[in-house]
């Protein structure tokens, strides 16, 4: 406004109106004009400066606005992409949810060495297996529907893992099984699998903790499977499973199928439990024969009004060998006589009424052959059974014989019963002696075989394996790091457990 007024004053100045008035202009008027001119110039410069600043600020704001607009456009595009991706994921999620619901299944793992099926069902063989399978399937489905609110599960997998031979022996020898049929468990398993297509019966055979290892691996796999909506384990008899299950305690789909009373360590497990007493035994298999049904693998028993036992090998069937079959006479009582007619003497071992005497012809008793076994230390590592020192002369003789034949003795042939260990037969590149080796020669060959490292090392569970599983001088070995068994140096070679080839275990007290 001041500049405007100054301009008006300048325009109204007498010196600018008429040339004739110039003569009357004074010096002061000129000075005033110059002053006003300078003021106008200063005002113009300030205006230009302000205009420049405003223009610069405007450009900066405009650039910033364009940047924000570009960012906004990018965000809009990103949101659009995420929305599309979200809709796609929703469709996939709904698909998988539908798939898991329609293909949901239940999985039951049974450690058959401890969770034993009812002996009456086992005694029925295949028919008993079929009955057990149908009853187990019905009870599991009923439990899932009533207790777990799982009504849409039609596929129920049941996997039984056990040592069939070991269980059969335990049931027969303890007198638990109503029949002395050592093949009853196998027959039961066949019927069990045939009755239900999703049921399996796996015989892992003898060996240390074979069933436990398989059970745990199956459990770990099914625990991660989202289609598995119900996972049950029948293993409450073993404290080891309680520790194993500790890391899964927050998984609501896990249940415990209780057969025998749960072991002590299961007290702290918070899993829901259920039982099916119509299918499983509620008591452990006794380790000793019961008084009601005394059937033992080490005793062949003759029973009428009285029970008498005779040492002998495990019977393959309820019938007695011909040599032990009693001869029954309807004549009067006889007394034992020692005669000389061809050495045929008899021993009267008992009476049933006054008209019957059981006669058993004397036979030469053969010493029972000790079954093969494997030793393990406290760390579950294989320990070789100590061997007595071999006769140096025998070792030298065998070395000379092998050198003369151009081949070493076949370990598998000579250290197995009747040479059955070697499958190569006549095609074997090692020496098969025509004559049976003597005990000193077998001992020498065992020592030589022990120098060969077993491929399975300290985890070998083959009771018939004659190879070496550790250095025979684990401490202070002469060969040091050059020893074939160097990686086993320092290993504890004190055995604490003996596991027989039939799965029987014996704890060794040192």
UniProtKB/TrEMBL annotation:
Residues 404-435 form the C3H1-type domain. Keywords: Metal-binding, Zinc, Zinc-finger. Residues 1-11 have a biased composition (Low complexity). This is C3H1-type domain-containing protein. Residues 1-29, 310-343 are annotated as: Disordered. The keyword Glycosyltransferase does not apply. A zinc finger (C3H1-type) spans 404-435. GO terms for molecular function: zinc ion binding.
């Amino acid at each position: 406004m001041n500049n405007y007024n100054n301009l008006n004053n300048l325009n109204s100045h007498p010196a600018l109106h008429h040339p004739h008035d110039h003569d009357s202009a004074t010096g002061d008027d000129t000075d005033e004009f110059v002053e006003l001119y300078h003021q106008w110039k200063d005002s113009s410069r300030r205006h230009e400066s302000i205009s420049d600043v405003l223009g610069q600020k405007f450009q900066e704001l405009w650039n910033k606005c364009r940047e924000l607009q570009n960012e906004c456009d990018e965000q809009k595009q990103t949101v659009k992409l995420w929305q599309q991706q979200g809709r796609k994921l929703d469709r996939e999620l709904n698909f998988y949810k539908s798939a898991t619901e329609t293909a949901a299944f239940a999985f039951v793992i049974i450690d058959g060495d401890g969770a034993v099926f009812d002996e009456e069902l086992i005694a029925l063989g295949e028919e008993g297996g079929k009955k057990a399978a149908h009853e187990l399937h019905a009870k599991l489905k009923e439990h899932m529907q009533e207790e777990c609110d799982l009504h849409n599960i039609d596929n129920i997998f049941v996997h039984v893992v056990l040592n069939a031979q070991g269980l059969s022996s335990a049931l027969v020898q303890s007198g638990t099984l109503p029949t002395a049929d050592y093949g009853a468990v196998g027959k039961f398993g066949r019927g069990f699998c045939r009755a239900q297509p999703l049921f399996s019966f796996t015989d892992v055979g003898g060996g240390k903790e074979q069933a436990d290892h398989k059970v745990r691996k199956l459990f770990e796999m099914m625990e991660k499977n989202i289609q598995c909506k119900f996972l049950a384990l029948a293993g409450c008899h073993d404290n080891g499973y309680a520790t194993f299950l500790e890391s899964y305690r927050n998984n609501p789909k896990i249940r415990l199928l209780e057969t025998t009373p749960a072991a002590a360590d299961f007290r702290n497990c918070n899993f829901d439990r259920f039982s099916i007493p119509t299918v499983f035994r509620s008591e452990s298999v006794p380790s000793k024969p019961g008084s009601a049904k005394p059937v033992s693998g080490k005793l062949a028993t003759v029973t009428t009004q009285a029970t008498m036992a005779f040492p002998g090998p495990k019977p393959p069937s309820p019938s007695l060998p011909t040599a032990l079959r009693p001869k029954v006479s309807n004549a009067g009582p006889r007394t034992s006589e020692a005669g000389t007619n061809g050495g045929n003497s008899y021993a009267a071992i008992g009476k049933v009424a006054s008209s019957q005497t059981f006669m058993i012809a004397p036979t030469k008793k053969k010493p029972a052959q000790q079954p093969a076994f494997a030793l393990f230390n406290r760390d579950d590592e294989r320990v070789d059974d100590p061997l007595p020192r071999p006769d140096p002369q025998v070792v030298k003789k065998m070395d000379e014989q092998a050198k003369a034949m151009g081949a070493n003795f076949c370990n598998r042939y000579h250290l197995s019963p009747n040479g059955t260990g070697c499958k190569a037969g006549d095609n074997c590149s090692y020496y098969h002696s025509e004559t049976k080796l003597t005990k000193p020669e077998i001992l020498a060959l065992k020592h030589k075989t022990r120098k060969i490292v077993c491929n399975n090392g300290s985890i070998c569970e083959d009771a018939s394996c004659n190879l070496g599983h550790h250095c025979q001088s684990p401490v202070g070995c002469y060969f040091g790091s050059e020893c074939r068994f160097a990686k086993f140096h320092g290993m504890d070679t004190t055995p604490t457990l003996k596991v027989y080839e039939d799965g029987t275990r014996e704890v060794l007290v040192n």
